[in-house]
Amino acid sequence: MGHLQVFIVSFLSISCVSIFMPNLVAAQLKTNFYAQTCPNVESIVRNVVNQKFKQTFVTIPAVLRLFFHDCFVEGCDASVIISSTSGNTAEKDHPDNLSLAGDGFDTVIKAKAAVDAIPSCKNKVSCADILALATRDVIQLSGGPGYAVELGRLDGLASKSSNVGGNLPKPTFNLDQLNTMFASHGLNQADMIALSAAHTLGFSHCDQFSNRIFNFSPKNPVDPSLNKTYAAQLQQMCPKNVDPRIAINMDPITPRAFDNVYFQNLQKGMGLFTSDQVLFTDQRSKGTVDLWASNSKVFQTAFVNAMTKLGRVGVKTGKNGNIRIDCGAFN
């Protein structure tokens, strides 16, 4: 998920509902939402995801990060997919979103086209729901758990770059900062730790962690919480004069598998970001890391629960949204 990196009035009101009355939002979403209008929507989306995955593995972390970045700014409403116009700089062009791989956007746009190619489904399924379905599919494709996706989101009516700043976790965050940001979206510490495990997939650029391997502090140029061998490897891969084009696997052991090795890496001091490693070095979260490092099933259950809760954040219904004809542009 990389980093995962103010609100318009409608989002404030809806996100308050999702935080304080989560059951109300859950009631608006249903796993069989399209049973009458587009009963085959899940298989249509899955086929597109499978085709895209065969072209490039990047599809998997790209879609996963796209979903997270979407939900954490305006809520899960596909606002991150909107393209900028001469009159509006959209979310996707904020510096925190420039590292989102194009394959994530392309997957949603192609899936939307495939859905709309079915006459009975045309203009019936939101881009936000397609992104939620595609996210579940890429998790499964990489060996993660399958789960029922709640559906019924509408697409958002706003996408502003100015709303992104401060709404995505940074690689430098400590546990308190992580907990505070996730709590603002109705997600608890366990949810935060589970969602952080998305860093078991994908890559990051050197500038996101170079401070840990070269100039951590005057006494310790290298972050002492980093495994020394791992730190040396990172120094070899990432020159001191940071080349922004160099990408490093976030999970050095199983970078293409969705698994609990992420937590085992933390136990060995091999968390790439400060915000990863702190989950093990802080005693308040260490127990969860240790449990999930040794019990994959318990972790996967927690992850599914966290993803379901994440998918309820800032959901648009009624007049607060619509179904976009083109995922990249407002109707």
From TrEMBL:
Tell whether Membrane is among the UniProt keywords: no
Superkingdom to which the source organism belongs = Eukaryota
Record bears the keyword Transmembrane helix:
no
Q: Which InterPro entries match?
A: Haem_peroxidase, Haem_peroxidase_sf, Peroxidase_pln, Peroxidases_heam-ligand_BS, Secretory_peroxidase
Q: Which GO terms describe its molecular function?
A: heme binding; lactoperoxidase activity; metal ion binding
Pfam families under this entry?
peroxidase
Q: What remark does the entry make about the cofactor?
A: Binds 2 calcium ions per subunit. Binds 1 heme b (iron(II)-protoporphyrin IX) group per subunit.
UniProt entry keywords in alphabetical sequence? Calcium, Disulfide bond, Glycoprotein, Heme, Hydrogen peroxide, Iron, Metal-binding, Oxidoreductase, Peroxidase, Secreted, Signal
Question: What are the EC numbers?
Answer: 1.11.1.7
Q: Which reaction does it catalyse?
A: 2 a phenolic donor + H2O2 = 2 a phenolic radical donor + 2 H2O
Query: What CDD domains does the entry give?
Result: secretory_peroxidase (cd00693)
Question: Which annotated residues bind Ca(2+) 1?
Answer: D70, V73, G75, D77, S79, E91
Q: Where is the active site?
A: H69
* Residues annotated as binding substrate: P169
One Gene Ontology BP term is:
response to oxidative stress
- Coiled coil feature spans: none
Q: Which residues form the signal peptide?
A: 1-27
What positions does the domain Plant heme peroxidase family profile occupy?
A: 28-331
Q: Which positions are annotated as binding heme b?
A: H199
Q: What does this protein do?
A: Suggested to catalyze the deposition of the aromatic residues of suberin on the cell wall and thus play a role in cell-suberization.
Family statement: Belongs to the peroxidase family. Ascorbate peroxidase subfamily. Belongs to the peroxidase family. Classical plant (class III) peroxidase subfamily.
Q: What is this protein called?
A: Peroxidase
